Amino acid sequence: MSEPKKLYIKTYGCQMNVYDSERMAEALGGKGYVETKSPDDADMILLNTCHIREKAAEKVYSELGRFKGLKAEKPDLKIGVAGCVAQAEGQEIMRRQPLVDLVVGPQSYHRLPEMEAKTREGKKALDTDFPEEDKFEKLKNRPKAKRGPTAFLTVQEGCDKFCAFCVVPYTRGAEVSRPADRILHEARDLVERGVREITLLGQNVNAYHGAGPSGDMTLAGLIWELNKVDGLERIRFTTSHPNDMTDDLIEAHGTCDKLMPYLHLPVQSGSDRILKRMNRSHTADSYLRLIERIREARPDILMSGDFIVGFPEETDEDFKATLDLVEQVRYGYAYSFKYSTRPGTPAAERPQVDPEKADSRLQELQAVITRHQREIQDSMVGRKLRVLFEKPGRQSGQMVGKSEYLHAVHVSDASLKVGELRDVRVVSSSANSLAAELL
Ligand code: 5AD
Ligand code: SF4
Fold it and tell me: Which site in 76, 84, 252, 324 is 20 to 30 Å from 58, CA atoms measured?
């Protein structure tokens, strides 16, 4: 028997790319590829790219440049670019970096096997269409391999919101929800393979409105269906938009036992003037009132968010409003970014903030966020939490898992196994994790 061909995939960016990379590996698995952890022994290298901020695309080009030597040694090596940079740049990638054989956009992964065959004939393969069919349906041909205890599952893709800074509506396309029965089928399959926690993914996951048995289903409806799946213990979802936080979803946070008390709800800015210019169609106040309602339904919920500082025309006063909002919400986690100009988006044409000013705002915001994050994590000491153990820790006999609130928790106990869900008592808190004892 001939040696299997080896595939090296490097994933950048969001969790949806992680999910897509798994699907691409499975699609090429059907063509005899097995995954390798090193580009050095690969027959095909795929970079699954992110276009959300400037540096992300530049990183891809510099990574590609590094494969020059490898390709010279091994002329049969095929190099592909997938993901949002592939979608945005298309043919330009092959022009700028001729060693690239294949460019595939996020909506065309199901065509990878044919595209791979084309590259084996010495041709270049490019596909950045937005086809009508469900690519995940076409990718179903997956081996029933055992899985770890946690998995992502894409339920919705694309975005119709057109925030003035964001490329997602252009790279991932219009908002599309997958039918509920396919998602439930995939969830049951994951559970059979060992998965106990599923994170539902979508760029606008709470705008989910997939076909159900009696008309469209909301995200809350889907979560309630998943709640019935035996063997599935935990449900999470990300990323949500404040305007799509429907009453049934808020209520589910109080009543659905498998839905975890954690919500990623980006606000981007605390200034109404900037929110308006960002085309966010919510205000700081409406966002704060929404969080109040979510906390009424589930008082211990841990909030997480995203922020952009230095958005065009942001003044000191606007930035101060963002700091005020952060103080009011107290996020358990928050991700903050310096505004990055994305060509083709409305904000790209507007007067830019001085980069040094943006840098110092970013540092100031991150200091506040880090303080809250640490205070919230420290407040877990002495509490009883339930942890899903995911992998062995760095020290021998140690296991690491996640609490309901997504904090990393490690426990030293040689009897613990991956995939166990156990009650623990937290004994201490350090920079990035909690230490606990089994109860
Ligand atoms: N510049 C900086 N940050 C951005 N994000 C999206 N587009 C940009 C941009 N042009 C951030 C937003 C979003 C997160 C995924 O990335 O905060 O919620
Ligand atoms: Fe981008 Fe806004 Fe859509 Fe989020 S809601 S993906 S930030 S356009």
Answer: 76
C-alpha to C-alpha distance for 331 and 264, rounded to whole angstroms:
10
Q: Ligand 2 within 6 A of 150 CB?
A: no
Q: Which CATH class is domain 135-378?
A: alpha beta
**Domain parsing of the chain, residue ranges:** 5-127, 135-378, 384-438
Atom index in ligand 2 nearest the CA of residue 241 equals 5
Q: What is the pLDDT of residues 207-262, one digit of tens each?
A: 999 999 889 999 999 999 999 999 999 999 999 999 999 999 999 999 999 999 99
Ligand 2 atom with the smallest distance to the CA of 159 is 3
Task: Please tell me if the CB atom of residue 291 comes closer than 6 angstroms to any atom of ligand 2.
Answer: no
Rounded Cα distance between 426 and 382, Å, is: 5
Given ligand 1 and candidates 15, 85, 166, 309, which is best to mutate, with the most ligand atoms within 8 Å of its CB? 166
Global pTM value: 0.92
Q: Do residues 36 and 169 make contact, with C-beta atoms less than 8 angstroms apart?
A: no
Using one digit for the tens of pLDDT, what is the confidence trace for 380-406?
A: 999 999 999 999 998 889 999 999 999
235 within 8 A of 223, measured Cβ to Cβ: yes
